[in-house]
Amino acid sequence: MLIYISRRFIALFLTLVVASGVIFTVLEILPGDPAEVILGTQARPDTLAALRAKLGLNEPAPVRYAEWVGGMVHGDLGTSYTYSVPVSDLVKQRIWVSIPLAILALILSTLIAIPVGVVAATNRNKPLDFGIMGLSQFGIALPNFWFGLLLVYIFAIGLRWLPSGGFPGWSAGVWPAFRALILPAVALALPQAAILARVTRSALLDVLGEDYIRTARAKGLTQRATVWRHGVRNALIPVLTILGLQFSFLIAGTVIIENVFYLPGLGRLVFQAIAQRDLMVVKSVVLLIVAAVVIVTFLVDIAYAFADPRLKVRR
Amino acid sequence: MTDPSFASTAISTEGVEAGLMRRLARSPSFMIGAVITAIVILAAFVSYFWTPYDPTAMAISSRLKGPSASHIFGTDQFGRDIFSMIMVGARNSIAVSVFSVGIGVIIGVPLGLVAAAKAGLLDEIVMRMNDLVFAFPALLTAVMLAAIIGPGTLGAVIAIGVFNIPVFARLARGSALSVLAREFILASRASGKGTALILIEHVLPNIMNTLIVQATIQFSLGILLEAGLSYVGLGTPPPFPSWGRMLSESQTLMATAPHLALFPGLAIVFAVLGLNLLGDGLRDALDPRLAGRSAQA
Amino acid sequence: MSLLEIEKLSLSINGTPILKHIDLSVEAGQTVGLVGESGSGKSMTSLAVMKLLPPGAQAEGRIGFNGIDILAAPENAMCRLRGNEIGMVFQEPMTALNPVKTIGEQVAEGIRLHTGANRADAEARARKILERVGLPVEKFPLSRYPHELSGGQRQRVVIAIACALKPKLLIADEPTTALDVVLQKQILELLRDLVDENRMGLLLISHDLAVVTDMADRITIMRRGEVMEEGETAKTLSAQVHPYTRQLAEASTHVPARAKFVEGRAPEPLLQLDNVMRDYPGRRVSLFQKAEPFRAVNGVSFSLAPGQSVALVGRSGCGKSTLARMILALDRPTGGEIRFMGDIVSRMGESALRPARRNMQVVFQDPYGSFDPRHKVERLVAEPLHLLESAPSPAERRERVAAALHDVGLSARDMNKYPHEFSGGQRQRLSIARAIITRPRLIVADEPVSALDVSIRAQILDLFADLNQRLGVAYLFITHDLTVARAITDEVMVMHDGVIVEEGATGRVLDHPQSQAARDLVAAAPDLQRAIARRLEMQG
User: Fold this and answer.
1) Which terminal residue of chain B, N or C, has fewer Cβ atoms less than 10 Å from its own Cβ?
2) Which chain A residues are Cβ-neighbours of C92 within 8 angstroms?
3) In sequence order, what are the beta bridge partners of C4?
4) Closest chain B residue to C437 measured between Cα atoms?
5) Interface partners of C (3+ CB pairs, < 8 Å)?
């Protein structure tokens, strides 16, 4: 178990190192001169030189990389070119929108998907199963941002139950802030839940064909007890894999959904930064998001070891 | 069950393709999916020769009209015909997905096959690189590319293509490993066939079905991703119509002209649904084992 | 009244008839053997008794158990019977246990369910029954997971689950087919003791006539869903009244007609192994400690003359398949050398190996897995022609494939078919056709008949004997089945823990084994004649 966790941890660390290298290469080395990217090709040579000096671009690339990563470790994400404020300040305000939104969506989709998937599998080839599977096909095909627009039209513009967008901030109270996240979270969660429910169903059907299910039945367990005691836990193993992969989609989805609901999260920040060609902000925010994805993958791998005792010795 | 035919089901043993056609024709999801996909492709194709209106022609006099006999999906804030824009937009969605699936298959499948055949260090490197790419959602790659080369179709294709590489590499590796573990591979090696020949003659044909099914799924995912990227302004730039951007432009007019958001969204759902149904039908038909799967409990 | 009484049981699945008018009964304390080849319906019969039939199954007739009409019993009544009054043991110990639950949980689950015992009591009983089946708690605590146990140990856990509540009837469906002969003997003895202790009825299902003869008081022989013959084991098998019974018994002990191998004048050995070793990296137990390598083959030396037929026998995991792969140059030894026709093949590169490969072919165990399902027979059988110096023309290729098919008793027309159009025995013929198409000097056959039904097995053994005579090809048979070794080989080598512990003329080694490993194997190997004799003796 310890070997397994430490190997996963080393993999996590290496992925982060390489990922930061890739981000740095793409955003600072490939463009040639980041200062030119920021100011445009028409910029005067002395303005460019001044910006280069300000951004520390006169240092060799490895030194700049080391400074950037070193700063990251200490919570210093560099300085935004457009706002002239530390990127960490910009991030701090916004991360408390994006993270709760992603987690809320993840919880919501899991709570919907797993029971629905189990119900579909245990009612295989019955009308209930066909109904769930048909709906899930639509769910998968639904772009979350469009679904968000529909939700706004129905629940905010039409029924006026929930706000159509914007975020009052957590300082305005937990409930108003939470209310602002409900529609975005639903928009994110339902399409994901559709995929997860299908995975749960097929994983459970696979498991129900296994020999040990027959052993359990031969012990005298009822069909229902067999499914819950012996089926579901084994079926959760492939479901966990998909859940881990989905988190990366959820993060991307969060970035897009923030635009639908005008939420001041990391997604809005990064798009403003692109519009303003603020490479410093783009670089650090991208790395933060990648780090979030990698850490969640690591956690899923650990959860694996608990779900599947065979993993503790294998690999 | 002692009949060994029940045990050896790692790969469909159906060698005759006639049975496949019959199963496909009997699969409702395949048939519906095929019809929908054909309609989408046809719309894109026809749009090169004919659309009801010029999709870029603005007509201020007839702006924000709801659906009617002359404009069946209505018009947008510049008076452009939405139906025509959706037809032309299909081209964009299809082109981006085709190229990005192409990138994924051409780079990912050979990587996966080689990783499976040459276990050890090379396998480890390929798989770790896969993990790395998985850590970059397509959106982030698009964001980085947009930051340095500006938003555009190329950035979207590369971003979605890069995202597809590990998908195909993992799938190819996994299914190749299960083929390589079978005895006929040993028999082939005992016949002096080298790794490359075995991969081409035995492994690739046996994993082709799986790859085709995955390609349909990635194709539909590509359409979704492209729409998402265009929606946030990282896709094909105006004036060329794209479904995602039509949605983002509709957003401020949501309260007064909901049809602006409705039809492009339905177009996306329609195309993605069609491809998913097609993929599901194909998978069931290509792998009869899944269709006839019996749960003992 | 019998404990289990099956009367005129007919069964169909989605309209396809599977069983026709089966009659069978088991008394308390009695062992009944149910024998048949694949597709005979013996497993379905047992599942019908448990009422665990696949969806779409339709049963008619009557199954009476202890006064209960099983086919009419409601599901909750069946749940009370299963695991409590009727226990069941399955064929595949590797997959019969839930991988994410400990063995303690799995054994205790049924006890708690049926007796309502609390966790501690149930675990105490689980400990007791595990101890009884040979898994003492000091070495096998309840917290073990199935993957931490070997196949034989897992089968003991399955038996513990089935017998935990001392059921009146135990059904064992091919309980030892997946195990090697030594484990088979241990498991069968365990079953026999448990049945005696608790006066259980045992319905033992097997394809192996010798196993059933050893165990069963009465025997029922099934074929294609029907009962062929039923009676007292000793009488039925010694009289062999029914033609199918006779056919089965003869096929089980079939020895192909074959001239004795005469060693020529000082022949140069075809194959020679000198102190061959193979290490595998072991599993790491700690982060800071390098893993100990595992030595699968340890200093094996032997030689094989042209035209000679040699068996390499041993228990599963003894290293015999690893050795076979090294001889075939599919794997390299970590030490020692292998010479084939004078060349040191163990050091050659793939291109230098081509002439050697042409003269050395292979036949595998699984007739279903050894062909690429996507290619036609012509291409499959012709694959080794790739090794010829110059590629044959298409016409020549077809001719050679046709000749090879003819040699193995198939028709030239078969070359346009796909492998799934053939039966298991025919596929094994295809394997052999592929192996002889380059007219090799040596064929390595890894358990070539153990996946086949006995009657087909006899035919394939005849084919091997025939080709040995006609083509002068030498054989190395890798097998755990001593009847195969006895039937078809001149010499036998016994392998144990990576070492060859005994070798010599087949008859001598098998009749008078010297080493402990060989004695264990011979003692455990089921033998129909011996079993019948023993049973007749028992009855006086």
Assistant:
1) N
2) 211
3) C26, C65
4) B191
5) A, B
Chain B contacts of C386, Cβ < 8 Å? 191-193
B18 touches C: beta carbon within 8 Å: no
Across chain C, mean pLDDT equals 89
Interface membership of C189 toward B (CB under 8 Å):
no
Cross-chain residue pair C283–A211, CB shorter than 8 Å: no
State which residue of chain C sits closest to B194, comparing Cα positions: C350
Cβ proximity of B130 and B169 under 8 Å: yes
C438's tokens: 């380059």
Query: Choosing among B125, B148, B249, B250, which should be mutated to test the A contact, i.e. which has the most A CBs within 10 A?
Result: B148
Rounded Cα–Cα distance for residues A243 and A224 (Å) = 25
Structure tokens at C8: 């005129």
Q: Which two three-digit tokens encode residue A49?
A: 């030189």
What is the pTM (predicted TM-score) of this model?
Answer: 0.83
The neighbours of chain A, by the rule of 3 or more Cβ pairs under 8 Å, are B, C
Residues of B with Cβ-Cβ distance to A11 under 8 angstroms: 128, 131
Interface probe for C, chosen from A122, A219, A221 (most Cβ of C below 10 Å), is: A219
**Assigned token pair, A64:** 């700049």
**pLDDT score for B10:** 34
Contacts 24+ apart (CB under 8 A), A228-234: A229/C109, A230/C98, A230/C101, A231/A204, A231/A207, A231/B297, A232/A118, A232/A204, A233/A307, A233/C100, A234/A207, A234/A210, A234/C98, A234/C99, A234/C100
Long-range CB pairs of C74-81, under 8 A, 24+ apart, other chains included? C75/A222, C75/A223, C76/A222, C78/C50, C78/C51, C79/A220, C79/A221, C79/A222, C80/A220, C80/C114, C81/A220
Which residues from chain C sit within 8 angstroms of residue B13, using beta carbons? Answer: 368, 373, 418-420
Which positions ≥6 away from B54 have C-beta within 8 Å? B81, B84
Rounded Cα distance between C496 and C508, Å, is 18
Contact C360 B183 (CB under 8 A): no
Handedness of CA C66, C71, C77, C78 (dihedral sign): positive
Q: Which of C140, C208, C222, C146 is nearest to C179 (CA)?
A: C208
Average pLDDT over residues C327-338: 91
Per the CB < 8 A criterion, the answer to whether B297 and C54 are in contact is no
Residue C224 backbone zone (phi > 0: left; psi -120 to 50: alpha; other: beta)? left
Give all strands (DSSP E) within C49-105, no chain letters. Answer: 57-65, 68-69, 86-89
ipTM of this predicted structure: 0.83
Query: In this complex, do C374 and B193 lie within 8 Å of one another by their Cβ atoms?
Result: no
pLDDT confidence of C265, banded at 50, 70, 90? Answer: low
Check CB contact of B120 with chain C, cutoff 8 Å. Answer: no
β-strand pairing of C442-446 with C360-363: parallel
Res B14 pLDDT > 50: no
Of A219, A223, A233, the CB nearest to C83: A219
Would you call B294 and C55 a contact, using CB atoms and an 8 Å cutoff? yes
Distance CA(B290)–CA(A202), nearest Å, equals 10
Query: Residues 6 or more apart from C26 whose CB is under 8 A from it?
Result: C2, C3, C4, C32, C169, C201, C202, C203
> What mean pLDDT is predicted for residues C28-46?
90
A26-29's contacts with Cβ under 8 Å and 24+ in sequence apart are A26/B144, A26/B145, A26/B148, A27/A279, A27/A282, A27/A283, A27/A286, A27/B144, A27/B147, A27/B148, A28/A61, A28/A64, A28/A65, A28/A279, A28/A283, A29/A61
Structure tokens at C230: 């039923």
User: Can you tell me the distance from the alpha carbon of B141 to that of C290, in angstroms, rounded to the nearest whole number?
Assistant: 41
The one-character DSSP state at A29 is I
Provide residues of A within 8 Å CB-CB of chain C: 2-3, 6, 210-212, 214-223, 229-230, 233-234, 237, 307-310, 313
